[in-house]
Structures are given as C-alpha cells and as structure tokens.
Please model this.
Amino acid sequence: MLAEEVHAALREQGATVAVAESLTGGLLAAALVDVPGASATFRGSVTAYATELKATVLGVDEGLLAVHGPVHPVVARQMAEGARRLLGATYGIATTGVAGPDPQDGLPVGTVHVGFAGPDGTAAVSPVLSGQRTVIRAATVTEALELLLGHLASRGRPR
Model:
C-alpha cells in the first residue's frame, strides 16, 4: 500500500508530514491514518474547503486567490507550506482542484493541483484526471502520496 511506503520512508528519514486538503476533503489524511503506527510520522491535517480558509488558516496569498481562484498550482504549493508550518512537520502536502460534477471558475472537472513543501522548497504537480467525482478524489490521493514518496526517495531514502 502506497501510504505504508510513505510512512516507512518518513520513519527512515526521521521526518513527519502534514496535510492541507480542499478537493480531497480529508481522504488524504484518512489514507495516511489508516496505516498502523501513523502517529509516528503524521502530524495532522487541515481541511480548508472554503476559499477564505486557505488564506486565513493556511496563509495562502489573498491576492493570488483573488486573481486565480483556489484551483492553481501556486495555491497548492502555498497550502502545503501552510500545513507544514502550522502543524510543525518536515513536509507538507496539499490538494486542490475540481472534482465535479460541474466545472468551477471556468476550469473543467478533473483539473487538479497537488502541492508539496519541504526543507528544500516547494513544488506542484498538475495531473489532468477524468472520471466521476469519487474517482478523481481517489486518484488525487494517489498522486499526492506518489509526489511525497518521490521527494523522499530523491533525498536518499535507503532501499
């Protein structure tokens, strides 16, 4: 299971993770918490579904939100950094996007951004997903876990 691999890599590095979710509404945190022993590496999560919470709780730039809306790669990066800072974790992961059933702010269903923040900076991936709402949300969780695992592996995770 992908979440088990993430926790194993975090333990090997003595690192922790925190999550900020919008699109996934708690599914990413649930996937991480489903792993026995998760408390050793999972710090917590913020589900900032409402746009204003991205700014007031997570520290996303209000001007960015006003210009681009909540579904943007820089918003995802800032959400990840906010979770990392707020919850005192080594890494932060964030999800934002349009799961449907309808487009949002002119963006089509399946537009997704996953943010990453760590000691060496931030990044975002923007997969274009398709399918029903539940499929898009589940696929976003997988994308987030893979993004984190990839960064952990690049930091020399022992094999």
Observations:
- Helices lie at 2-13, 27-33, 51-56, 62-68, 73-87, 133-154.
- The chain has a mean pLDDT of 96.
- The radius of gyration is 15 Å.
- The longest strand covers residues 91-97.
